[in-house]
Design the sequence.
């Protein structure tokens, strides 16, 4: 079967950035696919299936990340991860309703 | 950012006397409090907030390491501390293995970017097998401080 590579660019939009919990959701979604998946910012490329590596990205709000998948389900994987980010990880259980001051 | 910039070396705990997750969180936060690193924040409030955060999703990310953390409005300066256990802690880790090294981080609510940078610094180092092994083999607070210093120097080369 085809081993197509597929990639897209996303922007982290939640004010707190890609902190540990959204990163864990991201890793969970990535692990549901067979493809090899990587995520890159400007200077680092990490394995999307490893929470330790994903946390190393320090993707703050506004950071653009490239998601790249290679394998039989590459396109589906990229779309699922893109969807998660575009929903601002809203599949999360509500965690806190504390209002947060926006920092500059 | 270097680990030594954020970790209060005089609050490092070795060996941790607690063996369960909540007690370890308490032990480390009280150590920070004892060294007056928490400003006006009430340690009991921070302990409660952090154990709540931890019960929502474990920060025991595998390989014998946990990184409990919380952002709290009563904290004005980001602060971190390390504790090492010789017997292992049940941290409900992702890999279900006991935890020997705990990096605890408390950040102000107002600066999420700095929180992420601190996490990045900690994780870049924890990613290294050598660093994890040195911490695991540490026999004193001094060993831990040295492992942190060496790892900082290593990354900035």
Sequence:
């Amino acid at each position: 079967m085809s081993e197509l590579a597929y990639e897209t660019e996303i922007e982290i939009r939640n004010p707190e950035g890609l902190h540990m919990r959204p990163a864990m959701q991201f890793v969970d979604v990535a692990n549901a696919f067979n493809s090899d998946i990587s995520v890159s910012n400007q200077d680092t490329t990490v394995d999307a299936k490893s929470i330790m590596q994903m946390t190393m990205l320090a993707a703050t709000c506004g950071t653009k990340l490239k998601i790249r998948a290679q394998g039989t389900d590459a396109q589906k994987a990229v779309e699922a991860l893109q969807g998660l980010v575009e929903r601002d990880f809203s599949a999360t259980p509500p965690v806190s309703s504390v209002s947060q001051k926006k920092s500059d | 950012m270097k680990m030594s910039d954020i970790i209060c070396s005089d609050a490092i705990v070795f060996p941790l006397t607690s063996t369960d997750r909540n007690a370890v969180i308490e032990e480390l936060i009280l150590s920070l409090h004892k060294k007056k690193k928490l400003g006006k924040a009430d340690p009991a409030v921070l302990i409660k907030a952090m154990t709540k955060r931890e019960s929502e999703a474990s920060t025991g990310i595998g390989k014998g390491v946990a990184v409990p953390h919380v952002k709290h409005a009563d904290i004005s300066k980001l602060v971190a501390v390390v504790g090492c256990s010789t017997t292992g802690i049940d941290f409900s880790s992702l890999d279900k293995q006991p935890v020997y090294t705990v990096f605890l981080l408390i950040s102000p609510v107002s600066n999420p970017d700095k929180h992420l940078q601190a996490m990045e610094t900690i994780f870049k180092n924890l990613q290294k097998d050598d660093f994890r092994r040195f911490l695991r083999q540490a026999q004193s607070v001094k060993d831990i401080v040295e492992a942190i210093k060496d790892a900082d120097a290593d990354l900035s080369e």
In short: The two ends of chain A are 49 Å apart (CA to CA). Chain A has a mean pLDDT of 86.
